Amino acid sequence: MSVTTAPPVDPAVVPPEIVAALRSAREVALLSHVTPDADAIVSMGALWLALPTLGIRAHLVLPEGSVSRQLSYLVRCGGLRPATVADVQQCDLIVALDTAKEKRLSGEEHLAVLTKIPVVNIDHHASNTQFGRCNWIVPQASSTSELVYALLRALGCTITPTIATLLYAGLHTDTQGFALSNTTPHALRVGHELAAAGAAVAEVCERMHRSLSRGEFELLARVYANTQVSADGRLAWSTLSYDEITHTGCRAADIDAQVEVPRSIEGIAVAILFSEGDPGRVRMNFRGERGVSVLELAMQFGGGGHRASAGARLTGPLADVTARVLAAAQAYVAALTLEPLK
Fold first, then answer.
1. In the prediction, which pLDDT does 11 show?
2. Domain ranges of the chain
3. Residue by residue, what is the 3-state secondary structure of 69-88?
4. How far are the Cα atoms of 176, 296, 308 from residue 288, in angstroms, in the given order?
5. pLDDT at residue 116, rounded to an integer
6. Could you report the per-residue pLDDT of 194-211, keeping only the tens digit for each?
7. Which of 102, 241, 281, 312 is in the most buried spot, having the most CB atoms within 10 Å?
8. 16-208: what fold?
């Protein structure tokens, strides 16, 4: 069975198939995408905390080393305990969260024992392939955290201060502090309700925005130094080589929000961060400004995501991948019809 997602879809209304699937489960494996961001971690974490109150055993698949140093705060905040392969062997349901494609799910060893198990797919990526037996995909939602909040309420779960803090962190980060175009009136209402439920708003903001390690600060300085802008001013990009990343003591899991540096330049339409987290493996973070969608650009390279925020990965030398993608991006932005800046 599949839940249609043609707009408009109300992110506060949970399809009954999703609720029924969870209520009938005994043991649930909670999965998300590789290199999980805050929204992925807290969506799993909130369910991990809440489902046992319904008599459902929950197992959090969060492979060692997959969480960045900064986001490990969320793991500590929730007291989250990652599952072992043995933990998930008896699961009768998989809940996949914030993941657009099945091949992007993390935890290969865990997945190897989770064969022929129904999948509930909950996500807000427009490029989601509807790979679950039950699919609740709401591109209009600001975040998967927003959907999980609605799901917990539909299940009758109490939103504790810890759950509220986790979900607020996901909502806050995916809207860049309620500053992006995905900040809907409903998202603001959910943020208000989470704050009222005891979310540690100030702490979340400090940990997500003002808690760089010295190595992360050095890495950010390198992003600034490497940032370039196209001659027409529509495209900005930066690069991080494997050596530059490791020299600061950082790793692939620490790369994500740094794309906000080229994105912050006035007048640009598309920003890209190229990062070589592992030798010969390049990740592209795409961001759109001025109402420009970058989803189509990311999909040219096998990626996906949202209109204003997408990603892709390619194998090859950083310089070669950068040149290839920039050629396509230059052509993409040149064809755009943009409103003049006010």
1. 85
2. 16-208, 214-334
3. CCCHHHHHHHCCCECCCCHH
4. 13, 11, 5
5. 87
6. 999 999 999 999 999 899
7. 312
8. inorganic pyrophosphatase (n-terminal core) (3.90.1640)
